[in-house]
Amino acid sequence: MAEKKPRIFQDSRDMIISLVVCFAVILLAVSFTGLCSFNPRQTIESGPVRPVDAETILGMEAKAMPFPVRLPDTPDGWVANAARRTNVDGDSAPIVGWVTANKAYLQFLQTRATVDAVVDDFDDVLREEVDPVVVGEVTWRRFVPVDQPVKDTIYGYSSDEVTWIVTGTAGREEFSLLAQNIAAATPIEVAHPAADTPAVTTPAPAP
Question: Is 193 helix (H, G, I), strand (E, B) or coil?
Answer without folding.
Answer: helix
